């Protein structure tokens, strides 16, 4: 299990985390910031210059998850992770990666009053011998607090919040430990199938509205938009898998097996394994049907009907190419064979 302690700079995450490992048996302190520090030595300067925060590096987010899994394999128990996480898409990606490894996450937010937070940051960043540096760090702190304030809506909806305005680190840790014990700080609701260890077969279903726009869904467990669908289970037909996923994700029961539009072979691209991807035509949802769509909060955050042009900016390039050719196949009442989103053969 992971206890992820979130909060702005100066909220007291690290000091509370050190206290918490004294209160939770078989617990280990894990600071993902160390990975960011090492990447500054490992990556070329040209790559580092592309970002202002190491969290913006995909390799950092991947290594945080992989390292957590490796630590728990060596040290079974609880990892206590003090790390500011303000971008929801990064939370989706990282917590989803942990969910795929069957590692539950308890998300806790330390939230002192903003005036207290600003005082703590100012005291920590004072540099009497370098007024210019002090000014720069205060500006950075102000900008960070603005980002933190903007992220509060999704964080407070996701995490168990502890007001640390008047709490010592020990008292904060005791509050967290009690919330974990009682279940008040419950498991993060992200659900994802186990990470594949070989090539997979997946089935997606395209659903349309009466304006011929296609339905995309926004998963909670990874960044970006996707088609309704998922991995085909052993012994399951791809069309049946697509129907099952539509029911599980949207609460919609398709009356008949959807028509195949494309079969796409996705090449392995580490850390992914690739495999066969089927896209089916699930038909048009008339007005009343579209209003009955249900979203399980643990798996999907939202859905939208979009045009082909709109989908081009919402889907990864290969996935958009798969959609583009599926739409052409639908227009022609044909089935297309693709490799990495490109038609092959006659």
Question: Could you estimate the helical fraction of the residues in percent?
Answer: 40-55%
Give, in spatial order, the strands making up the sheet with the most strands. 8-6-10-9-12-13
Per CATH, the architecture of the largest domain is 3-Layer(aba) Sandwich
User: What's the Cα radius of gyration?
Assistant: 23 Å
* CATH level 1 class label of the largest domain: Alpha Beta
Show the helix and strand layout.
Blueprint: E1 2-6, H1 13-23, E2 27-29, H2 33-42, H3 45-48, H4 58-74, E3 78-82, H5 88-100, E4 105-110, H6 114-125, H7 131-158, E5 160-162, H8 169-182, E6 200-208, E7 214-219, E8 229-231, H9 238-250, E9 259-266, E10 275-284, H10 287-291, E11 300-306, H11 308-312, H12 317-332, E12 336-339, E13 342-343
Parallel strand pairs: 1-3, 1-4, 2-3, 4-5, 6-10, 9-12
Antiparallel strand pairs: 6-8, 7-11, 9-10, 12-13
Helix pairs in contact: 1-8, 4-5, 6-7
Structure description:
- The protein has 346 residues and is of the alpha/beta class.
- The chain has 2 domains: 2-182, 3-Layer(aba) Sandwich (Rossmann fold); 200-343, Nucleoside Triphosphate Pyrophosphohydrolase (Alpha-Beta Complex), CATH 3.90.79.
- Helix content is 43%, strand content 21%.
- The chain contains 12 helices and 13 strands.
- The chain has helices at residues 13-23, 33-42, 45-48, 58-74, 88-100, 114-125, 131-158, 169-182, 238-250, 287-291, 308-312, 317-332, and strands spanning 2-6, 27-29, 78-82, 105-110, 160-162, 200-208, 214-219, 229-231, 259-266, 275-284, 300-306, 336-339, 342-343.
- A 6-stranded mixed sheet has the order 8-6-10-9-12-13, sandwiched between helices. Strands 2-3-1-4-5 form a 5-stranded parallel sheet, sandwiched between helices.
- A hairpin with an 8-residue loop joins strand 9 and strand 10 (275-284).
- The radius of gyration is 23 Å and the shape is elongated.
- The model has no long low-confidence stretch (mean pLDDT 86).
